[in-house]
Amino acid sequence: AGLVAPPPAEVAVRFQLPAEGPVVPAVLVAARPLVALDAAVARPEAVSARLPREGGWLALDPAWIWGLRSADPNYWSEEVQVRVGPESTAPALRLWPAGMLAGLVKVPAGAEWPGELAVRFSGLDEKAMGPSGTEYCPIDSVTGRFTCRLPAGSHWLRLAAAPYQPVYRDDLAIPIGASASAGEIALRRGSSAVGFLRYAAGRPAAGIAVSVSPAVADPPRGSASPPTGISHSAKTDARGFFQVTGLVPGSWRVQVEAEGFAALTSAIFETLPDLESELTAPLVLEKPIAIEIALEPPLDDRGAAWRLRLFRLGPEGETGEPITGAVDELGVFRHVAVAPGRYLVAVDGSAGERVAREERTFTAEHPVAWIELGFVSVTGVVTFGTKEAAPGTLWFGTRHGARRIEAIVAEEGDYAVRLPAAGPWRISWSPKSASEGTEIELEPVEIPEKRRFRLELRLPDTRIAGEVVDEEGQPVADAEVRVTALAGSRPTLAAAPTDEKGRFRLRGLPAGPLSISARRGRAVADKINAQIGEGLEPPAVRLVLVEEVRWTGRVTADGRGLPGVRISLWPNLGPAGLAITEAVSGAGGFFEVDLPGSAVGIQALLLAPNRAATFVSRPLVPGTELAFEIASLGGELSIPTTTHAGALTSAVLVANGTLVPWPLLTGLLAGRFEGPGGVVSAFTFHALAPGAYRLCVGAGALRYLVNGEGQPPTCSDGLLVPGGLLVLEALSPDS
């Protein structure tokens, strides 16, 4: 009220003043440029001004989104985002009385002090709407001392500086207009894990011992898994918080045993070098109950006891180690100390068959479950084409599936098996000789509800053979050759080893276009496309292994290294070269990744919590590192499916110059998009980095965009701005 109408490049700033603290006539504010709305505009300088406590106008470049906050020594505020335009008004800055935090940083002997300390703070009362955030406190390079401004009040603090383990402070009070001491902050290298422990009613479980142990019982030699027989422990504080330090990189679980409560084991989590792993969901202590599970029939076909594995189910799937045991002679499984909740009950036969997986919920009121196995006797013949027998092994449920029933296929092609249930079954076949491949998945089958059923299985009479050589043309033995379908619903079809002369052969693969690759150790071969079919001459395949090259890189955000970023990279190897390599940025945002030696460029997707999904493309220049900047703010991309929806399966999204085929796009961004459903007839991708986007549709869209070959696709394009919505149409070829 009472402010003069602003020029177009000014924004109105107002304050929400605190009820206590100093009373000053003006408040110092600062604004920094965050994201350009026009890529051609140079980054402006940060802006600061002292504005009346009633509010005022701040001149800002309208080509940018700005971050605005208090820079006044008397007040602290969160940063708010501002877009400048005619009659723009920034969100009111809520001011909190400020104080100072000071301390002394100690580092290992011979190490230099980090440049700054990231101090994350939050109020002790989780239900109160107090201030929270992160401040970056400069560290004096001579003395190791630091000071920085924080909102006054009692805080829970996390103090961190890469590459060291964070240090926590509980219930530290910052006085208004004065300084509080965090004491000595001793920084140490290593991995760590943090989390919260709660009672079922939601109260913090304070003073409870938690331990962290390796999740892999017998890690393979040379693996990153921690050695067995070691355990680290800590106690929860008043908030139920725990921090376990001194871990090494690998797979771990948290275990809690508290008197009067069911034993608790967390899901497996990974630790990376010099990074903290956070258990996102609190662990919950619950009173135990006694359960019973009755099976029919009570014993397996051999007259032996069924064996059960019970996996506790959480929001993200299976958690903790399974409860294991066998049924008694009546087919009843009993356990006297189980936490109530949802479980996946896996039933195994005495010979290791994975017979059934049933979900059950156990409570104090309903502690008993019943599982009936309705067996079907299945017989049949497996052939190549219409006549030639295909001896080997059938796997109902596939060899590595949740259900796994083995059936030996005799030399004449006959087999017999008893399945524990009717309904849909995935099936795979393994040849009798390992030199002819490991496993080929067949089309799923439907088993009817009958006591007996005959199922004839026909493998395509197709063949593929070739050789694997090194860069000198010498044969490579024991290389793994992998065949992937370029069309259809089963991408990975089969794998086979090479013999002592570098040769391989596969038979019975589905007809159609294939992609063939090979690997041995750190050497990989560029993928080769081939077409196979019954009656066709087998393609001659020659795969050349080239040593991988290790590249280093760094991910930054707002100029600071960002750890914990998931990086998915694929080399520029053409349509057959879309092999994904994964990496995670470590301390300081640094990462390492192995890429094929033949690659001349890479494309990548960067994903991190509370950041925009960022696609990048880079040439691979020897002697340089990969430098990626992840976007802070994003927008939404909507692709309607009301017309030409089927064309999306072969579509390519060009995101800021990065080519992303549709299956790769939906796979990498799983959890960040919504498909058509209900009244919505569109794919909507959330939090994508700003920039230029193009959607190209056509059967050969990727081949044309990579090599300029074939029919040009039909494309629609546009510019996505921070906080905006971009709609790209899947245009038909005649549009």
Can you offer a commentary on this structure?
There is one protein chain. The protein has 2 helices and 68 strands. Strands 45, 46, 47, 48, 49, 50, 51 and 52 form an 8-stranded mixed sheet that branches. Strands 19, 20, 22, 23 and 24 form a 5-stranded antiparallel sheet that branches. It is globular.
Quick synopsis:
This protein is mostly beta strands and 735 residues long.
- Number of separate strands: 68
Radius of gyration over all CA atoms, rounded = 31 Å
Going by helix content, strand content and strand pairing, the class is mainly beta
Helix content: under 10%
Write down the overall geometry: globular
Total helices: the number is 2
Give the strand content: over 45%
Q: How far apart are the first and last residues' alpha carbons, in Å?
A: 53 Å
Give the overall pLDDT as a whole number.
87
Reported for the largest beta sheet, the result is: 8 strands, mixed
Return residue spans where pLDDT drops below 50 for at least 5 consecutive residues: 1-7, 218-223, 573-577
How is the topology of this model organized?
Elements: E1 10-13, E2 15-16, E3 26-36, E4 47-52, E5 56-59, E6 64-70, E7 75-76, E8 80-83, E9 88-89, E10 93-94, E11 96-106, E12 116-123, E13 133-138, E14 145-151, E15 153-160, E16 167-174, E17 179-186, E18 191-199, E19 209-214, E20 232-235, E21 241-247, E22 250-256, E23 264-265, E24 269-271, E25 276-278, E26 283-285, E27 289-296, E28 307-314, E29 317-326, E30 332-338, E31 341-348, E32 354-362, E33 368-372, E34 376-384, E35 388-389, E36 392-396, E37 405-409, E38 414-419, E39 423-425, E40 427-431, E41 440-441, E42 445-447, E43 452-454, E44 457-459, E45 463-469, E46 480-485, E47 492-497, E48 503-507, E49 512-520, E50 523-525, E51 528-532, E52 540-547, E53 549-557, E54 560-561, E55 566-571, E56 581-584, E57 590-595, E58 601-607, E59 614-619, E60 626-629, E61 635-640, E62 652-655, E63 658-661, H1 662-668, E64 673-674, E65 682-688, E66 691-697, H2 701-707, E67 714-720, E68 725-727
Parallel strand pairs: 1-9, 2-10, 11-17, 18-25, 18-26, 27-33, 34-43, 34-44, 45-52, 53-60, 61-68
Antiparallel strand pairs: 1-5, 3-4, 3-6, 6-8, 7-11, 11-14, 12-13, 12-15, 15-16, 18-21, 19-20, 19-22, 22-23, 22-24, 27-30, 28-29, 28-31, 31-32, 34-35, 34-38, 36-37, 36-40, 39-42, 40-41, 45-48, 46-47, 46-49, 49-50, 49-51, 50-52, 53-54, 53-57, 55-56, 55-58, 58-59, 61-65, 62-63, 62-66, 64-65, 66-67
